[in-house]
Structure formats: C-alpha cells, structure tokens
Amino acid sequence: MIVIASVIGVVGARGVLRAADERTDDVERIEGLQSVLAEVPDEDDETIEYPAENYLLVGSDSRENADPTSDDSAVIGDTSDVGGQRADTIMILRQERNGGAALMSLPRDLWVEVAGTGRSNRINSAFNDGPEQLAATVTQSLGIPVHHYVEVDFQGFKNIIDDLGGVEVCVGFAARDVNSGLSLNPGCQDLDGLQALAFARSRYYEEWDGTDWRLDPRADLGRIERQQLFMRAAVDGALRRLRSSPFGSGDVIEAVVDSVRIDDRLDPIKAGEALRQAAEEGLRTYSLPVVNDTVGDASVLRLGDGSEILLAYFRGDGPAPAEFETGSTVPDEAAAPASGAGL
User: Fold this and answer.
1) For residue 36, what is the enclosing H or E element?
2) Tens-digit pLDDT profile for residues 299-323
3) Which of the listed residues 86, 138, 181, 328 has the most CB atoms within 10 Å of its CB?
4) Minimal CA–CA distance to 138: which of 84, 85, 93, 197?
C-alpha cells in the first residue's frame, strides 16, 4: 500500500489523479470486513496521544490469477498444484496523523490464538477462512486496531513492479533460492516483477562465499528482513520515477487497480493523498522481537522480550521504539537504493 500511495499520492498532477479517481471504481472490494475493522480516529479528537491509521497489508499466495506462460510458472504452480489461498506475507502499515509512516512485518509462523476458534495456530492460518478472521486475529491476539485492509496476490505483485519499471536492490554476494526461482548477481540490479517476487518470497536464501553456497538459517525472519529492504527500495524508486515523470504513472495505476483487493470503506485516492507525506518523509521499518519454539512437531515463533513495547506503538499506546527500527527510506530525491548486508 505504501508503494501504491507513492503512485497515486505523490504524483500531484491533477489529470493523473482525476484518471486514477475514475479507475478506482473498478477496484475489487471485500465485503464483510466492517464488523472487524476499527473506527478511524476522529481527526479533531485531541485526547488521542498517538493518533494514526493502521493498514493490514496481505500478500496472498493464491494461484487463481497465475500466468501459465510466465517464466516462474514451474516454481509458482497453479490452482491444480496449490488450491485456495494463504497469507504469504502479513504487514501492518501505521500512518501517523503527522505524516510519518511505519511498517512492521508479522512472521507467518507467529503462534497466536486464532479469532473465533478458541485454538492457537500460526498466524497465517487465520487467513484460511478469509480476511475477516485474519483482521480479527491481529486485533484480538496482538491488540492492534485494523482500520483498513489491502490484499494483493502473486500475479498482481509482479504486474505492479513491472509497471513501476522494476526495483533496484543491492546485494553483497551472488544469491539464489532454487525454491522461489531467485538468482542475483553481486552488486546493484533492477529486479523485474518475476525476480522481485522470487526475492520477496525467498525462505531458502543462499549466498555464494567464493567456495560454496551458504544457506540463511533465519528462514522466515531472514525473509522479513529482505522484504523490508525491498519495500524501502520500492518506495524510494517509485518516488524518484514519479517525480521525474508524473504522467508516466498511468500504467502503474492500471496495474494497481487490477491487482489489489481492499475493504469496502477505503478510498484509494484519499488514502494515497494521506500517505503522500509519509512516503516523502521516509518509511520506517520495524522488526518484531520473537523467539523460536516448538508445538508438537511444528516449529513456531512466539513473542519475545520487548515485543510489548513495539506492539504498544502500533496499538497507538506509546511512542516509536527506536531500538526495534531496522531502517528507513531516504526522504529526498537523491535517495540511494537499499542494499543488503549479507548473511
């Protein structure tokens, strides 16, 4: 959503915004979320110490729109290989009333009580019965109010990145993931939609140390770090491209409209304008403290020391905890591409 906001919020050209406004009527809306979404804080309520709006961002692994002719079709598969949908990526985007923005990733293996079941499971399993259950689980188990919901599937993600012109990512070593189809050279390179998805999905990330391939042992936590790196790079890249060619955003708007699903009450144009300043001032990313655990034969993650401090911030009950910040975008036109630190 923060990248989408960069497209429709930073442009500032009336003609483009008017065209976007006409197209947003075609965005797919998800009904049934009203009962689990929190009320948006009143802009005039000065009693709220840390006013903000939270967006629940979900990357679905649905293969429903998968392109069988794509180069990654053998890796992604189709509905005959993987039916239904799961939450492949879960993030909370906090848009501050003063214009700042923060992003926190929720590990797929985080062990929580799933809303409406009376049982605990990995948090991504809450998506199996739809976005309503996932949003309710985030609120009930973590105490984070969810005001808006945005979802994109694999194909939609690739389309948006391709129409942005790719995203520049820098890595210190050659990297690969034979499971996701990732293959990177050392240094900086533009990732198209196919490689961007492989990078964002990678759970078996390997780096070449000059002698052998070394597997990142952090699994989903390493993946979260790379996803946040990618998001920062995508925001920086989108801002630079749209500033230099605002009227070239039409194709990106088309891709966004055709690729996302949102809650019934979200106004994409208003959201984009509200997030414009956030994107330009810099997006801060945070890592949720977790610890490894085992439930039965399953490896899971539980909330670790300090997690309550970070959760309090995203609940709106406390200030931003600097100790859990993992990075931020560069809030100017000379922004440098995000780079990886290696394993």
Assistant:
1) none
2) 999 999 999 999 999 999 999 999 9
3) 138
4) 93
Q: Which residue has the tokens 């003063």?
A: 98
Burial of 177 (0-12, 13-18, 19+ CB in 10 A): buried
Pick the closest to residue 268 from 32, 276, 65 (CA basis). Answer: 276
d(C-alpha 297, C-alpha 233), whole Å: 37
What confidence score (pLDDT) does residue 164 get?
Answer: 82
The number of residues making up the chain comes to 343
CB 271 within 8 A of CB 279: no
Q: Six-digit token pair at 266?
A: 């979200």
- Measured between alpha carbons, how far is residue 25 from residues 19, 28, 122, 261 in Å? 11, 8, 35, 12
pLDDT digits (tens, 9 = 90+) for 73-123: 555 544 444 445 668 899 999 988 766 789 999 999 999 999 999 999 999
Chain centre distance of CA 342: 21
200: CB partners within 8 A, 6+ apart: 59, 89, 157, 223, 226, 227, 230
CATH 3.40.640.10 fits 2-328, yes or no: no
Q: Of the candidates 108, 1, 96, which has an alpha carbon nearest to the alpha carbon of residue 50?
A: 96
First vs last C-alpha separation in the chain: 28
Q: What is the pTM of this model?
A: 0.85
Which ranges in the chain belong to alpha helices (H)?
2-10, 14-23, 73-76, 131-142, 154-164, 193-201, 220-244, 250-259, 268-281, 307-315
How far apart CA 93 and CA 157 sit, in angstroms, is 17
Task: Tell me which residue of 277, 73, 67, 259 sits closest to 163, measured CA to CA.
Answer: 259
Choose among 103, 89, 90, 95: nearest CA to 138: 90
Q: Tell me the domain boundaries of the chain.
A: 2-328
Beta bridge partners, 191, equal 167
- Residue reference for tokens 């391939």: 213
